[in-house]
C-alpha cells in the first residue's frame, strides 16, 4: 500500500480525483469526507453509507448474515455464534464449550473459528482437534465479545459481487498465494523462505511441521489474501 494507506482509501482518492471531488482523510484513513459544492458525504471504516442501518449491522455480523441467508433460502455455510463467557453465564450460557466440542466432533474435516465481526481474515483459525480449538477460542475471546464456528469447507474460488441498485458493479476474486513442496521441507520452512509467514501463527503446530509433498501446494489459508478486481459483465 502506497504510504501505508489502505486500498479502500486509495480507491476513494482515485475516484474523487477523476470526478473533481475534494477529499479530506482523517483518523489515519478511517474517516473520509468527500465534498463537491455544498454536498458532503462520509466514509467510515469500510462503510460508504449506501446501506440502511439494519443491512449494515447484518452484513457486519457473520452469524446474523448466515441466519438471514438461511431464512431467505439462500445456500450458505452455517456460522454458530458463541459469546464470551466473561459476559456472564446468563449471556454466554453454561455449556458453551460443550457446544463448541460438539461442532468439532460433527465435522471431522475440521472447523473454522473466527471473530463474529471483523474483516481482512484476521484471527481466523482452522481447528481439527480440541487443542487447536482451545487455542483459537482463547485468542479470539482475549480481545472480542463473540466468535463463530463454521464447518471447514474446501473452496476453490471465492468470488464477491458489489451490487448497487440491483446492478452488479464490481466482481472480485480472492487469490491465495501458496508454496510448492519439495518433499523435504516443512510448511513452516517453505512459507518463511517464500516470505509468506505473516499468518503462520494461525495454523496448528502439526500443520506447520508437516512435510509438504513434492509438487504439492500449501493450504490456501496460509498466505495473506490479495484481491483482483475487474469490471462486472453487464446483467442479462
Quickly describe the structure.
This protein is an alpha+beta fold.
Characterise this structure.
The protein is α+β, with helices and mostly antiparallel strands. The longest helix is centred in the first third of the chain and has 12 residues, at 7-18. Mean pLDDT is 84; it is low at 220-236. It has helices at residues 7-18, 53-59, 62-71, 89-92, 96-106, 130-141, 187-193, 205-208, and strands at 22-26, 31-36, 39-44, 80-83, 111-115, 125-127, 146-151, 159-164, 167-175, 226-231. The radius of gyration is 21 Å and the shape is globular. It has three domains: 2-49, no CATH class; 54-151, Dna Ligase, domain 1 (2-Layer Sandwich); 159-231, no CATH class. The chain has eight helices and ten strands. It has a four-stranded antiparallel beta sheet with strand order 4-7-5-6, covered by helices on one side. 15% of the residues are buried.
Topology, element by element:
Layout: H1 7-18, E1 22-26, E2 31-36, E3 39-44, H2 53-59, H3 62-71, E4 80-83, H4 89-92, H5 96-106, E5 111-115, E6 125-127, H6 130-141, E7 146-151, E8 159-164, E9 167-175, H7 187-193, H8 205-208, E10 226-231
Amino acid at each position: 500500500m502506497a504510504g501505508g494507506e489502505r486500498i479502500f482509501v486509495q480507491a476513494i482518492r482515485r475516484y474523487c480525483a477523476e470526478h473533481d471531488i475534494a477529499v479530506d482523510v482523517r483518523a489515519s484513513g478511517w474517516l473520509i469526507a468527500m465534498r463537491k459544492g455544498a454536498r458532503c458525504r462520509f466514509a467510515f471504516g469500510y462503510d460508504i453509507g449506501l446501506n440502511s442501518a439494519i443491512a449494515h449491522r447484518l452484513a457486519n455480523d457473520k452469524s446474523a448474515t448466515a441466519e438471514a441467508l438461511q431464512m431467505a433460502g439462500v445456500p450458505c455455510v452455517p456460522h454458530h455464534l458463541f459469546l464470551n463467557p466473561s459476559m456472564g453465564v446468563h449471556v454466554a450460557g453454561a455449556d458453551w464449550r460443550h457446544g463448541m466440542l460438539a461442532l468439532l466432533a460433527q465435522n471431522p474435516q475440521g472447523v473454522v473459528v473466527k471473530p463474529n465481526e471483523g474483516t481482512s481474515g484476521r484471527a481466523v483459525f482452522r481447528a481439527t482437534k480440541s487443542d487447536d480449538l482451545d487455542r483459537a477460542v482463547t485468542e479470539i475471546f482475549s480481545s472480542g465479545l463473540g466468535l463463530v464456528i463454521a464447518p471447514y469447507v474446501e473452496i476453490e474460488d471465492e468470488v464477491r459481487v458489489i451490487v448497487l441498485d440491483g446492478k452488479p458493479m464490481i466482481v472480485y476474486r480472492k487469490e491465495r498465494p501458496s508454496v510448492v513442496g519439495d518433499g523435504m521441507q516443512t510448511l513452516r520452512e517453505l512459507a518463511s523462505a517464500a516470505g509468506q509467514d505473516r499468518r503462520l501463527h494461525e495454523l496448528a503446530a502439526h500443520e506447520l511441521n508437516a512435510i509438504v509433498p513434492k509438487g504439492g501446494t500449501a493450504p490456501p489459508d496460509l498466505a495473506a489474501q490479495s484481491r483482483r478486481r475487474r469490471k462486472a459483465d453487464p446483467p442479462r
